[in-house]
User: What shape does this take?
Amino acid sequence: MLRLNRDIENKELENIPEVKKYFKRIYTVLSKDIRDKLKDLDLSKDKKKKIKKELAFLSKEKQLEYLDELNRLPNHEKKNI
Assistant: This one.
């Protein structure tokens, strides 16, 4: 069972600013083709992880555009991501 702090117990969860902010965001699940394109990038795991987090808030169309742009970058510029 989840135990909430007494301050939180006295408020409704929907009225807590952090909870409101979390639920107002639009999240997207990365499709298999997006994950595959990301996997094929010549970047470190840490950089790929950061990119995954950014992609999660984009539509699939924007995700594809983002990854296509990354693929067009020369390798020396990808290091600065």
Notes: The CA atoms of residues 55 and 63 lie 6 Å apart.
